[in-house]
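Friendly challenge for the regulars: who can give me the structure tokens for this chain first? No prize, just bragging rights.
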Amino acid sequence: MSFLTEREINVIGIQRTGQHAITSWLIGHYDHVCYKNNMSQAGCPARKEQGIQPPYWYFTPSLSDDWEVSEDQAIREDHTVILGTELTKLSFGLNPNLEAQRDKIAQSMGYEQFSRFRHYVLVIRNPYNHYASILNWSRNRQLSPVSHFKKMWKKMANECLYCTDEFPFSKIVIPYDTWFSSRDFREEVAKKLDLELNDRRLNTVMKIGVGKSWGSSFDGMKKNEKAQDMDVLKRWVKVRNDPRFSELLEDDEIARLSGCFGWERPECVEA
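First reply, four minutes later:
Bragging rights claimed.
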């Protein structure tokens, strides 16, 4: 059996869950990486189900501007492939076109299979910090209605707790808050991917958007190379008096699932 790439890593998380930070960190473990950002997911209109279509972004440690788009638009055979999927209220699951696209890409380049090893890295975040991040994010409002967020977060929590099996291959669960604060946990994740821990991109803010125009953080690129200085573990404080956040606090199922990851429901007081 021949394979186009040795390893394929799918980084999957609900919007504003921190998956771009974790993707940036993963990229730092490789000399050459092919990355496809924000693939469409199951449930989107057919015209949007682009999946693993070009263009692709290529990262190397020597690139000062983080990434480049290949002129030939092809996945490179010697690169690990990282595929990012950002979930919204539209659906929970994978783009149904992905399998067919994997086969088509591999066969077009003379290989029988797309990847020898496939991993699903599922990113979940403390729901109170996560929802606060969504409320403070102006670019997309699909998850700002609390009912939408609660529905999606509960689905991700149950998947990460192995109560459901929407992602049937090798799953690596990353609680974002733990990843952000614990070097030992990051080392555990690296070992599961047969990597030696490398934090060289831990403080790098990934550039995303058309023309590399902005960073995936509240501060844009202002905190680039200082990402660990961002107050990501206390985001809820800024929205503690928002009635939508109060509704989230009242949800006992959210609190129960959150406790499974070691996260407590915050006690809010009027400012």
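Residues 3-127+144-230 form one domain. The CA atoms of residues 29 and 197 lie 7 Å apart. Your move, everyone else.
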